[in-house]
Structure formats: structure tokens, C-alpha cells
Amino acid sequence: MSSTGFSSFAEFYPYYLKEHANLTCRRLHFAGTSLVIAMVVAAVVTGTWGLLWLLPVAGYGFAWAGHFIFEKNRPATFQHPFYSLWGDFVMYKDILTGKIPF
């Protein structure tokens, strides 16, 4: 087991999903991740690289509101920052493909 408490992302992801059981929390994560993707695309297309400074605000702002207000737990980012970021994008894909309810 690694210092993160999980030996792999595959081991972490079920924990991550349990921390995102609330539908509104998941929707806020989806909104924040959508905004992050849109901002990256906008920065690349327009060359407005200053937008990239806003990525953490957009992504974490929505996600943390979901956790503190609706899920009533601490975001996984605090203890598992890399797995948590990876989990955001995997959960985003799982929502888009219908694997996880939206």
C-alpha cells in the first residue's frame, strides 16, 4: 500500500465514488469539470493563457461547494490530491457515458 492509503487508482475509485453519492455534488463536479475543459480549450484557441490561472477556482470551487454544502464531507483532494483529480475526470467520463446517474 502506498502513502496515499491505496495501492492503485482502481482501488481508490470505489472510495471516490462513495464520497460522491449525492446527486447535487456530482452535478457540481460535472459543472466544474466542464468549465475547466472549456477554459483550457478557450486558452488554447485564443492564446489567452491567463485563463489557466482560473482553473483551480473553477474546478475546486464547484466541487468543494458540492462536498461542504450537499455531501457534508471533506473533499478527497485534501488527502489524495492526484487520485482525486484523476477521479474527477473518470467520474466525468462515467457520467457522460451513462455509467453514473446524473
Q: In words, what does this structure look like?
A:
The model has no long low-confidence stretch (mean pLDDT 94). The chain has a domain of 67 residues. With 102 residues, it is mostly helical. The chain starts with 8 loop residues before the first helix and ends in a 6-residue tail after the last helix. It is built from four helices and no strands.
Order of helices and strands: HHHH
- The fraction of residues in strands falls at under 5%
Oligomer: single chain
Q: By helix and strand content, what is the structural category?
A: mainly alpha
Tell how many strands the DSSP assignment holds: 0
Quick summary of this structure?
This protein is mostly helical and 102 residues long. It has helices spanning 9-18, 23-46, 55-71, 81-96.
How are the secondary structure elements laid out?
Layout: H1 9-18, H2 23-46, H3 55-71, H4 81-96
Helix pairs in contact: 1-4, 2-3, 2-4
What key attributes describe this structure?
66% helix; mainly alpha
